[in-house]
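REQUEST ID: PR-0412
SUBMITTED BY: lab tech R.K.
PRIORITY: routine
TASK: structure prediction, single protein chain
INPUT:
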Amino acid sequence: MMKNINLIIIILFLISCKDKSLHEIKKENDYYKFKMQISPNGKYEIYNYCRFGTFAFSSDICGSIIVERGKKFSESGGYRINGDIHSWKNDTLIINRFDNYLDQPQDTIVRVKFEKFKDLNLKILNYGAVNSSGMKEYSFDSFNLNDKEICLENIERTMGEDIEKNKCYALGSFEIINTKDSLKEIIVKTVAKSMNFTYANPDGTYTENLPEINVLSLHFKPKKIMKPINTKSLKGVFNDIK
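STATUS: complete
OUTPUT:
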């Protein structure tokens, strides 16, 4: 009888020690956004997550964390990016980081520094506070995707200013959104700088020609129905954890 009890305890212990799947981690933590991408060299995994705050009026808890491939994900483990992925350049990860302690940026100068996680090089582009954001929409005829970039062809403006007819975007800078049966859109996040910001003062006056740090979301939608892109086989591209 005692041997049977000990055996049951051992089995239960082994089950509890078993690594949880990403689906189980998402469900357990109530993540409403949970994505993962593999670095181009296959050595690292980057997780992007969001969950609602603990209390009704508290901010959502979001972040991006790098771990060595095969290591267990946790919010407290690995390397915290504290910013947005700009792109991959060879084996270097470029990150946009913003000074969220300021209401307005003091200038448009990008301050560059370098960090390291294990043997992964990170180039950090430090900006002032973000004081502007927006979305622009375009359509395209076709695309070419390789292990360095995606190139969109015959781009036309839907909402926003005109851009080049053919544009390429590096891995890490774009996200692929599929429906069940087709490619829905390709989203590119980018940062634009100018000295054209106008600030509305409390007294009703305006101050013009101020520094502007503008985070833009560019949405590219196919002009015709295209098959979904299998993101699970891609490196350097976020894949939704279902």
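NOTES: The chain has two helices and 17 strands.
REVIEWED BY: pending
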